[in-house]
Amino acid sequence: MSGIARFTRLGCGLHYREEGLTRLANGQLFNAHREYCFERQPQGFAVFFAEMPPRLFHRIDITATGAGLRGSGAHLSTPDTYDSTYEFLPDGTFVTRHEVRGPRKAYTSISTFRRVSCPPPSSG
Length: 124
Description:
Layout: E1 2-10, E2 13-23, E3 29-41, E4 44-49, E5 55-65, E6 68-77, E7 80-88, E8 94-101, E9 106-113
Antiparallel strand pairs: 1-2, 2-3, 3-4, 4-5, 5-6, 6-7, 7-8, 8-9
């Protein structure tokens, strides 16, 4: 997928929306999007599906590494398992890796996020 991800403030956390164009291995193209809510936690953050009521995707405990920050978490979506890592790098980029395994799904998704712009502060 190639596209744009946006974080916006939402109550005590952040709302995340990604949208873009996805190309499958067979060459098929389609528009895709996904939304999550991120909430600060004492040791990191929790990620919720943007549903009503919100449903927990995973909790990520963050630790310092020599090259930034890193955290991981897991989610069981019976019968499949999602093992996820988040790596925050000193240059401001971050990488997410989701390894999905089970009888219905088997893939690895790696996303690299780079800031393209920062909106000006709102006045008033």
